[in-house]
Each structure stands twice: as structure tokens, then as C-alpha cells.
Design a protein that fits this description.
The complex is a heterodimer of chains A (364) and B (474).
Chain A: H1 4-13, H2 24-29, H3 36-47, H4 54-61, H5 68-72, H6 79-92, H7 98-110, H8 121-125, E1 135-138, H9 141-145, H10 148-160, E2 165-166, H11 176-182, H12 186-201, E3 206-209, H13 212-224, E4 232-235, H14 236-245, E5 257-261, H15 264-269, H16 274-282, E6 286-287, H17 303-308, H18 310-326, E7 331-334, H19 337-346, E8 352-355, H20 356-363
Parallel strand pairs in A: 1-2, 1-3, 3-4, 5-6, 5-7, 7-8
Helix pairs in contact in A: 1-3, 1-6, 3-6, 4-6, 6-11, 10-20, 14-16, 18-19
Chain B: H1 7-19, E1 24-25, H2 28-33, H3 40-47, E2 57-59, H4 64-77, E3 81-84, E4 101-104, E5 111-115, E6 120-124, H5 129-138, E7 141-142, H6 155-160, H7 168-171, H8 174-177, E8 178-184, E9 190-192, H9 206-209, E10 218-225, E11 227-228, E12 232-240, H10 243-254, E13 261-265, H11 267-278, E14 285-293, H12 295-311, E15 315-316, H13 320-327, E16 344-353, H14 354-371, E17 375-381, E18 384-385, E19 388-397, H15 404-424, H16 443-447, H17 451-461
Parallel strand pairs in B: 2-4, 3-4
Antiparallel strand pairs in B: 1-2, 5-6, 6-10, 7-11, 8-9, 8-10, 12-14, 12-15, 13-14, 13-17, 16-19, 17-19, 18-19
The chains are: A alpha/beta (364), B alpha+beta (474).
Chain lengths: 364, 474
């Protein structure tokens, strides 16, 4: 049985096709089964006696939970809610794809999605930082493990702005990836509680979050669980844009042109659009505006999604690159270590992926 | 034909060889996704926990040549082929009622050409129509085809049922907007209609395929005309004392000027859906209208429209409600605004000359209301031509029978009554949703002996009858 709310939403979506145009997975693959409508239909049919099997579970994982559909829905339905619940059921009933189970096991064993035994390299690279400070920069797993430069440049920018901050020596996971894989279960809540305690123990009053996926997790789900109360949570983009606006960072002009890969967790989950553009503007980047921008920005996959559906993530990046090239731009600028990591792997020939933190650090 | 032994796997591997292993599926999730389209009977079936008709194979070609290969395989094994675009059709036209292959064309979504000098845009037919419109918009143009299913239908789906958008009164229907198509014939041959504006080189093949609903071939590429985005687009609304007066006024308007939108609602729809979505609360016959293009021409058109409406004693409601309607033009179709199961509902759209259209409205209303106690009938006219217009009437039953079989009987009885009332008074089976599975049985009544022309073409092009069986009465 699905929860009453999920069943209600699935029943509403099962005969509605209106968000098809905006779904990045359906758009990149053309697969009918990988649409919010089809997932709603399948869940409504399961509620009416159809067997929940491994094939249906697989369809539940062909979604990035990016909420483009929810943003587009006039009525206000949110297919990611029933999709996430279906994943929880798939894990509990041993129907989830093998790659998903393997990732969950890896996170359980190593504490991170990449299976690395030692994290904290960025802490070492950061140079001397105080043990305690009013501002804590939360780096996130992808920057730690796969895209260290984003973290290095973010740390450098904060130093240049004269911010009294620190980072955790043994930074734990926020639980965002685990929640994406298995829904917001008790296991995920336990991870969150542990992480929240480590953050609180630093005595930080402001938590600056580099990875938008972590920021969304902290702001949305931690809040729902009563965690991190009393600590201000700010995205790194918003924090740095404010430093520029306050004159704490003097930025030279880059004289480059490109389009922004707006992180969907910023634009849709956190309703934050202006800061990334403000940073790009301060850097003197001439922007090529895409049709799908702001709240409609196109998701190019998530780190867990890229592990279990790499061919789909690759196709989503190709579609995004086509958007840029069609409009005469061959530079795509990211503000998320996840986006940089995924796009760099699959960008089409002639398209360059750049990191806004790296650009900014070089200009101030 | 029953497949025995490992024949299923033999065909599966042949299809995989044609389009790639990853583009053929028979998994439960893939098949379930194609078992239900927007057709009320398909929806009712799954709503009541029944079993939808599912395909044996889901095949997703990436180009016309792959479509051709699949059709050759299907012809050899005499496998039904049902082409699926967006699946948002209301007539059951894409449903795999005969099993076999569902051919999903959405991987064929490439933009092939934009010619801003000629004002044309060419694409593969699996492209979502909204995407095509975005591409045109990027260049300062529009295809001017904005149906309520813009965001979910494919280009191919719109062509296959000969669809229409809300701006049709000025910019035409899709058969006015589409300039040429490439078609994969049932035997796998790929042909093109002549890529010129007009010709005297024999009958035009293009209209043969537009509206053929996948029964004569599969359209794989299409060229459309584009129009520059209008300098101004202005909205107005009026209230007539009744729909009869509204019909007279609107006819005079469209025979005098060229508005892009003219939507005249009967009293029942004015006090229900219009009230709900845009908050207009008066009784009467609501009409919203849009004029667009060059500012000077629009200003002259507005003056003439106001004069005509005054002549028919219409109350001018200003620009607010027309703007609200335009802003909410798709809102009407979202859950919570559109009718939904378990309600029974259907859209009986038809088209006729001005002499007949109001007769059809009253005859259809009477026929439907006499069929079942508790049926509601609402109506509007939203696509207008020089010599006639269409009527978009809906029936709604809030509490239909519980029994599935009884539901099907009642549903078809209402449709028979409504469509026969239209035909008897000079109308046709349908204006812009197509025939599909829903209305195929009524094609012979509508066409009479002319049906043999369609049957002859079908027999010649598709001798094995594999293309979308049970649809369009063919």
C-alpha cells in the first residue's frame, strides 16, 4: 500500500501528460515508461492489484527527482513524492535495481557513495583553518571525492574575502544521495541526525553549503526532522554573491561568453535563481540565455543517477550541449560540483565545461 | 495469429537487430505505459482495476530508415503496428488493441532545418510540439499551432489526427500549417510529398496522410511554415444574451476581420468552467477574442469588432477576462480543472456550415440529454472559418454505472446519439480530435459510398492490414 497522499497524487497524474515536455529523462530518451505520468499510472495500477515487480521498480529509478514536473504543474502535484516512496518500497521488497542496492551498501560500508575509504583530502588542502568558527563550509562528497577543484576554489574565495570559517576534518554525508536512492527512511534520518550533531558541535552559526543537493537536503528535510535548528543555512552561491555585493570581493572581468547550467536544486527546490547569475555578471560573463532557464532549467542528472543510469545521464548532457551549440555558445558554466563532474564526462566535442568557482577565484 | 515456441524471441531479436537492443522492450513497465491513452474507456478500464490492452513489443526507432525496417518485419510476420507519439489522444487512436508492436517515435526528435528566409521549419515527427515551437521562438517566429496538448503531443501525433490549435481562426489548422511530409509506407518504402508551395502535378498527396491516424503509413519528417511573432497580441471579452446571438455576431466578425482566437461559450459552460477557471460570474453566453499582428492593423480590427458586437447588444467586458483566459488556456486541462474518472465524459466536436452549426448544437444537446438521466451537456465554438465553424460539446456524467460493461454500453450509446445528431444535421464525425477506436464504427454512416475510396487506398497500401487495426473504421 502506498500512503494516502502518494496514491492520491498518482491517481491525479496517471491520465495527465502536461509536464512531458519539461521532463529531462523523458525528453532525452523518448521513453514513455520514464515519464511522471507513467509512474503515476503504474502506482495507481499497483494500488488496484497489479504486481509491483522489478521492471516497475526500474522505472521508478529512471527519474532524477528534479521536480521540473512539479514546477510545471498548475494544480501543484509533485510526482517526486510518490516516486521516492516507490523507491522506499522497492528497497524494502528487494525489487530495486542491483546497481542501486550496491550503492546503498557502499554508503553503509564507507559512508560515501564513491566507496572511498578516506575522505577529508580537501581539509588537508585547505591549509590552516581554525578548529571552530562562526561559519562552517560544508564541502559535500562529490567535491571531496571527484571534483576537488570546486572545493579548493570555494575555500580560496572565502579566504580572499576575509571570512572566518572552517571545514570539517572528517565531513560526513548529508544523506541527500541516500535519500534519493531509498526515500526518507529511518536509516536516512539516522545519517542526518549524526551529521547535524557534527555540524552543531563546531558551534557554527552559519552553514555555507557548496553542493546544492546538500543545501536542499539541509533546508528541506533536516528542517522537517527538526535538525539544525538555530543554524542559518546558506548556499555557497548566495553567500558569495552577497560577499561580492558587499564589496568584500573585488572581481575583474573575464571577458568570456557562455550559458549557465543552473543547478535545479537551487532553482526549484530552494527557489534561488539570482545569486549564480549575479556572480556570473560580476565576472563579466556574457550570458547566452536558454529557453529552459531559472525554474525551468534542465537537469542533467544526479550523481547516484549517473551511477545506475549512465547512458541516460550521458544523453541528458548531450541534449544540454545541443541547446548551447544551437544558440552559438560552446561554454557551459556550472555552479555545482555534481553538474561539473557529470557534464565533464559526457560533454560533446567542442563544448567546454567550466566551474564558476574556478572562474571567480581567478578573477579576485 | 498465435506465436508458438520460441517464435516470440525470434521476432524480438529481429526487431533488436533493426533498431538496437536497447530500443526494443517487452518488460512490464514499458508495456503498461502504452496500455492507456487519454481515451475514456481505456482510463475507465484501469481505474476499475481491469486489464488494458498491451503490446507484445515496444519498439523505438531512431530514424525513418529504422521505421522502414520495422515495417518490413511487421509485414512479414503480419504483426499489428500501432504508432505512438505522445499518447495524449482522446480517441484511442494509439492503443495497441490488437497487440503486436507499439512503435514509439519519440526518439526521432531532431530539428532538421530552420529557414528564416522562407519561414519554414523542418523536424522529425517524434519531437514534442512545444519543443518545435521553442525552436521557432528562438528565431523570432512561431509555428502558430498551440493546441491544449502542446506540451505533451508529438508533431507526428498532431499530424496523424489532423489537430488544431487555439490560434486557428487566423493561422489555420495543422493541415494549413504543414507544408510537406516524409512517410514510411506500410511496405517500408519511404516517400515524400512534393516540397513546393502548390502544384498541378496530379492530386496532392499531403492531405491523404494528414489525419490518416497511422492507418496508411507513418509520417517521419515534416516541414511547417513559421510566422513572425506578432508585434501585438490583444485580448477582449464580451457577453451575449444567448448563444444564438453569439453565433451571428461571431460569424460576422470572422467574415470581416481575422482574429486569432474566437471562443463562444454556451450558457452552461459560461456558468461552470469559465466561472471556475477565470472567475467570470454573470449568466449569458461568454465570448473571448484575440487579435494580433501589426499594431496598426490590430487597432483597425478592434474597432470593427467592437462595432459588430455593439450591433448584437453584447456587453463589452474589457481586456481582463480575455487575458485571463489566454494565461489559463492550458490550466483547463490539468487535474482538478478537467473532468476526471470516475466521471464519464467525452468531447463531441464537430464542424458544419453556418446554416447548420446551431441546429447541430440543439440537436446534439437534446440527443445526449435524452440518453441518460443525470448527463450534463456543455458547449463552445472555438475554431471559425469563412463558411462555417466547429462545435466543441461535452457530456459529463458525475455518477456513471459501477459495472465496467455497463459503462462501455452507456458511453458508446451517448457517442452514437451525439454523433448521429451531428451527421443528421449536416455535421461530421469529428472536427479535430480524430476518429480512432472510439468512432470508427460511425465512419461508414458518415461517408456513405465514399468510404470505398478510403478502403481502396487502405487495401492497396496496407494489404496485410497491419497498420493500426480497428482504427478509423479501416
Amino acid at each position: 500500500m502506498f500512503s494516502k497522499d502518494s496514491a492520491r497524487q498518482a491517481d491525479a497524474c496517471r491520465f495527465c501528460w502536461m509536464c512531458r515536455h519539461i521532463c529531462p529523462v523523458a525528453g532525452a530518451t523518448g521513453s514513455e515508461a520514464w515519464t511522471p505520468r507513467a509512474r503515476g499510472l503504474m502506482i495507481s495500477m499497483i494500488e488496484r492489484g497489479t504486481e509491483f515487480d522489478k521492471d516497475i521498480a526500474e522505472a521508478m529509478y529512471h527519474c532524477t527527482l528534479c521536480d521540473a514536473c512539479a514546477n510545471d504543474c498548475v494544480t501543484g502535484y509533485k510526482p517526486s513524492e510518490y516516486t521516492r516512496e516507490a523507491r522506499m518500497r522497492a528497497v524494502v521488497e528487494d525489487l530495486a535495481p542491483a546497481a542501486v542496492i550496491k550503492m546503498i551498501d557502499t554508503i553503509s560500508e564507507c559512508g560515501n557513495i564513491f566507496g572511498l575509504s578516506a575522505m577529508g583530502k580537501l581539509f588537508e588542502k585547505a591549509g590552516k583553518l581554525p578548529e571552530k568558527a562562526e561559519v562552517l563550509l560544508f564541502i559535500g562528497q562529490t567535491a571531496e571525492a571527484m571534483r576537488a577543484d570546486t572545493g579548493v576554489h570555494a575555500i580560496s574565495i572565502l579566504k580572499k574575502a576575509g571570512i572566518d570559517f572552517t571545514v570539517l576534518a572528517d565531513e560526513p554525508a548529508s544523506g541527500a544521495y541516500l535519500g534519493e536512492l531509498m526515500g526518507y527512511t529511518g536509516d536516512v534520518q539516522a545519517v542526518a541526525a549524526h551529521t547535524a550533531k557534527m555540524i552543531a558541535d563546531t558551534g557554527a552559526k552559519t552553514l555555507v553549503v557548496l553542493n546544492p543537493a546538500d543545501a536542499a537536503m539541509f533546508k528541506e528535510q533536516y528542517g522537517a526532522w527538526g535538525l539544525l535548528s538555530g543554524i542559518e543555512i546558506v548556499t555557497a552561491t548566495a553567500f558569495i554573491a552577497a560577499l561580492i555585493a558587499d564589496g568584500k570581493l573585488k572581481v575583474k572581468k573575464a571577458g568570456i561568453a557562455g550559458s549557465l547550467q543552473e543547478p535545479v536544486k537551487l532553482t526549484r527546490a530552494l527557489d534561488e535563481i539570482a545569486p549564480f547569475k549575479a556572480i556570473a555578471d560580476a565576472c563579466g560573463i556574457e550570458l547566452t540565455e536558454l529557453f529552459l532557464n531559472g525554474k525551468m532549467s534542465r537537469c542533467i542528472g544526479t550523481v547516484p543517477f549517473d551511477v545506475y543510469a549512465p547512458e541516460v545521464a550521458a544523453q541528458m548532457v548531450r541534449v544540454r550541449c545541443e541547446d548551447a551549440v544551437r544558440l552559438g555558445s560552446n561554454l557551459i558554466i556550472t555552479a555545482s560540483p555534481d553538474d561539473f563532474y557529470i557534464m565533464s564526462k559526457y560533454a560533446t566535442d567542442g563544448v567546454k565545461i567550466a566551474d564558476i568557482y574556478e572562474i571567480l577565484d581567478g578573477l579576485c | 495469429m498465435e506465436l508458438r515456441g520460441f517464435m516470440h524471441e525470434m521476432i524480438l531479436t529481429e526487431l533488436e537487430d533493426a533498431v538496437g537492443v536497447e530500443n526494443v522492450s517487452h518488460s512490464s513497465d514499458q508495456k503498461l505505459a502504452y496500455g492507456t491513452d487519454y481515451f475514456w474507456l481505456a482510463r475507465m478500464t484501469v481505474d476499475k482495476g481491469g486489464n488494458p490492452a498491451l503490446p507484445d513489443y515496444v519498439v523505438r526507432p531512431g530514424c525513418a530508415e529504422e521505421v522502414s525496417k520495422v515495417l518490413k518485419i511487421a509485414n512479414y510476420y503480419k504483426l499489428p503496428v500501432q504508432t505512438w507519439g505522445g499518447g495524449s489522444g482522446s480517441q484511442g487512436g494509439a492503443l495497441p488493441m490488437a497487440g503486436g508492436i507499439v512503435l514509439d517515435i519519440k526518439r526521432m526528435d531532431k530539428l532538421l532545418d530552420i529557414d528564416t528566409k522562407a519561414g519554414t521549419i523542418t523536424c522529425e515527427t517524434g519531437m514534442i510540439f512545444q519543443t518545435l515551437e521553442w525552436y521557432a521562438n528562438e528565431q523570432g517566429f512561431s509555428v502558430m499551432h498551440l493546441p491544449s496538448c502542446l506540451t505533451c503531443c508529438t508533431v507526428g501525433g498532431a499530424l496523424a489526427h489532423n489537430g488544431i490549435g487555439i490560434l486557428s481562426t487566423k493561422y489555420g489548422k495543422i493541415d494549413d500549417q504543414c507544408l510537406s511530409v516524409e512517410v514510411a509506407l506500410p511496405n517500408g518504402d519511404i516517400i515524400n510529398t512534393l516540397p513546393v508551395p502548390k502544384h498541378s502535378s496530379g492530386p496532392n498527396l499531403l492531405p491523404l496522410f494528414l489525419g490518416s491516424e497511422g492507418t496508411l503509413g507513418i509520417m517521419t519528417k515534416a516541414k511547417f511554415k513559421m510566422t513572425k511573432l506578432p508585434e501585438v497580441r490583444r485580448h477582449h471579452a464580451f457577453l451575449f444574451k444567448d448563444i444564438s446571438t453569439g453565433y451571428d455576431a461571431c460569424r460576422e466578425i470572422v467574415q470581416t476581420v481575422k482574429p486569432s482566437i474566437v471562443r463562444l461559450f454556451d450558457e452552461a459552460e459560461t456558468v461552470s468552467i469559465i466561472k471556475k477557471v477565470i472567475g467570470f460570474e454573470k449568466r449569458g453566453s461568454f465570448m473571448n477574442l484575440t487579435v494580433e499582428g501589426h499594431a496598426k492593423i490590430v487597432a483597425a480590427e478592434e474597432e470593427l469588432i467592437l462595432d459588430i458586437c455593439k450591433k448584437y447588444d453584447a456587453e463589452y467586458l474589457g481586456t481582463e477576462y480575455g487575458e485571463k483566459w489566454f494565461e489559463n488556456r492550458i490550466t483547463f486541462f490539468y487535474p482538478g480543472y478537467i473532468m476526471n474518472n470516475p466521471q464519464m465524459f467525452g468531447t463531441l466536436d464537430t464542424v458544419a456550415t453556418y446554416d447548420n452549426i446551431e441546429k447541430i448544437y440543439w440537436a446534439m444537446k437534446k440527443a445526449v440529454e435524452e440518453t441518460y438521466d443525470g448527463v450534463r451537456f456543455i458547449s463552445h465554438s472555438s475554431h471559425w472559418y469563412d463558411w462555417g465553424c466547429m462545435n466543441y460539446s461535452r457530456f459529463i456524467i458525475d455518477n456513471p454505472p459501477e459495472d465496467q460493461e455497463e459503462c462501455i454500453r452507456l458511453h458508446n450509446r451517448i457517442w452514437n446519439a451525439g454523433v448521429r445528431a451531428a451527421i443528421a444535421n449536416g455535421g461530421v464525425i469529428n472536427d479535430h480530435h480524430g476518429v480512432g477506436l472510439k468512432l470508427g464504427r460511425l465512419m461508414k454512416e458518415s461517408y456513405g459510398p465514399a468510404m470505398q475510396v478510403l478502403q481502396g487506398i487502405k487495401k492497396e497500401l496496407d494489404p496485410n492490414g497491419i497498420m493500426n487495426p480497428y482504427k478509423m473504421g479501416l
